[in-house]
């Protein structure tokens, strides 16, 4: 029996697909290497309407395949199904779907498949509990060696007016620190070289503990002290919660990557307020200043949205200004897309041609900054984790501060650290050679 998983959305979804893979393998399924499978699982995202429409289009194409192979199992899970009424809507439009689960009850997948096989009974289960229990004994089929992802918390309490995540993932729930530490220790023993801690807002870790026994800075410090040659990253940070204590801990330990993803979303105070972000441009720039004072070489990346309802040309120019001041090493830029069920969806929308022109200008400004920053790497040596072999046979990996480097070398080096002398740069890409220095 063969399985296929189609994953959409964020890094957390990618990691949860590793969990889904393990559940399927527990039932005797193996990964399909060709377009021939007995079960297909869609692990969905709904952060933007365009993502949802893409997923629905792919589900619709399965109608003919299911008709030709009635034994094919089709399961739809994840964030998209957790929207209010979405499960019923999916079944009405695509009655050939066999299993629908939400983002917070993936542990039901195995029993849902067994019930379908033995009793020919479909499973439609999307609990609306805002604070479901966190299972600490989750197993994964990890697919990303030498990298591994570790969830430290789930859910979100921020309710940004453009975002649907709190409605589909529930309130913030932190995992027990001892369980996280144990998982990371085992990953290091198993040979993983880079661990990325995941959460909608990792800086809120521990806020839901009644005894307030540990916070994110405390967790980072414990993980940084795990013996072994490895390093730790995390994503994502919310600017309102990233404090000086966390910055100090990152600066203190070599095992903690000097790379912080800090979404700004907008450089305009009026738009930030309308977004319900709970910080100002001045607050944000102060955080950037503190990071640079204590870690001059720290890579700071961000998310920036253009075209949020009510964004004037002056608001957009404030965003351009903050990009120039912060000098991000990289930015994920995107056009605001209305999400049904969020407050921003009810606000007056900006014409698409204006949004399109703004994002093109933003990308041009950021690309120039990235290109200039890349020049600073030339002629220097950086420790790089060799992560993969590219199609042209070259190796690639990332520096501590998150920059991608391409270089020649033996594929046996994948999973090890190498010192790389940077010979040239090209926009966001760096190129170099292995050196013994």
Walk me through what this model shows.
With 437 residues, the chain is an alpha/beta fold. The protein is 34% helix and 22% strand. It contains 13 helices and 19 strands. The chain has helices at 11-26, 49-60, 62-68, 86-93, 109-119, 165-169, 177-189, 216-224, 244-252, 269-275, 281-294, 313-326, 352-375, and strands at residues 2-7, 30-31, 39-44, 73-78, 99-101, 123-125, 147-151, 153-154, 173-174, 194-198, 231-235, 259-261, 299-306, 330-335, 381-389, 395-399, 404-407, 417-426, 429-434. A 6-stranded parallel beta sheet has the order 2-1-3-4-5-6, sandwiched between helices. The mean pLDDT is 95.
In short:
With 437 residues, the chain is of the alpha/beta class. The protein is built from 13 helices and 19 strands.
Percentage of β-strand residues: 15-25%
User: Reading side by side through the largest sheet, how are the strands ordered?
Assistant: 2-1-3-4-5-6
Calculate Rg over CA atoms.
22 Å
Low-pLDDT segments? none
């Amino acid at each position: 029996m063969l399985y296929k998983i189609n994953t959409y959305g964020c890094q957390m979804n990618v990691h949860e697909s590793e969990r889904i893979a393990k559940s399927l393998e527990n039932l005797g399924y193996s990964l399909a290497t060709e377009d021939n499978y007995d079960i297909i699982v869609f692990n969905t995202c709904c952060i933007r309407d365009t993502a949802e429409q893409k997923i629905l289009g792919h589900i619709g194409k399965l109608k003919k395949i299911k008709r030709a192979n009635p034994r094919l199992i089709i399961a739809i899970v994840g964030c998209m199904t957790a929207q209010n009424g979405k499960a019923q809507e999916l079944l009405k439009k695509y009655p050939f779907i066999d299993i629908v689960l939400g983002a917070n009850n993936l542990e039901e997948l195995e029993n849902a498949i067994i019930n379908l096989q033995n009793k020919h009974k479909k499973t439609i289960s999307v609990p609306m509990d805002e604070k479901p229990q966190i299972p600490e004994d989750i197993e994964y089929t990890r697919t990303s060696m030498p990298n591994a992802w570790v969830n430290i918390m789930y859910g979100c309490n921020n309710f940004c007016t453009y975002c649907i995540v709190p409605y589909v993932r529930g309130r913030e729930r932190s995992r027990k620190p001892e369980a996280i530490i144990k998982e990371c220790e085992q990953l290091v023993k198993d040979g993983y070289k880079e661990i990325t801690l995941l959460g909608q807002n990792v800086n809120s870790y521990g806020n839901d503990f009644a005894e307030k026994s540990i916070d994110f800075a405390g967790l980072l410090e414990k993980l940084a002290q795990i013996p072994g040659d490895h390093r730790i990253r995390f994503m994502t940070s919310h600017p309102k919660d990233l404090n000086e204590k966390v910055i100090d801990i990152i600066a203190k330990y070599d095992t903690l990557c000097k790379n912080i993803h800090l979404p700004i979303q907008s450089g305009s105070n009026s738009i930030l307020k309308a977004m319900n972000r709970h910080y100002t441009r001045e607050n944000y720039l102060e955080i950037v200043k503190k990071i640079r004072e204590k870690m001059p070489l720290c890579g700071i990346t961000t998310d920036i949205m253009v075209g949020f309802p009510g964004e004037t040309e002056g608001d957009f120019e404030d965003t351009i200004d903050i990009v120039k001041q912060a000098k991000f090493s990289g930015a994920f830029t995107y056009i605001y897309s209305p999400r049904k069920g969020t407050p921003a969806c009810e606000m007056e929308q900006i014409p698409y041609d204006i949004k399109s022109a703004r994002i093109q200008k933003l990308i041009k400004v950021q690309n120039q900054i990235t290109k200039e920053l890349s020049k600073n790497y030339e002629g220097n040596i950086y420790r790089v984790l060799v992560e993969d072999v590219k199609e042209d046979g070259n190796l690639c990996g990332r520096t501590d501060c998150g920059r991608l480097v391409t270089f020649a070398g033996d594929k046996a080096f994948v999973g090890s650290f190498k010192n790389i002398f940077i010979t040239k740069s090209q926009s966001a890409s760096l190129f170099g050679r292995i050196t013994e220095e």
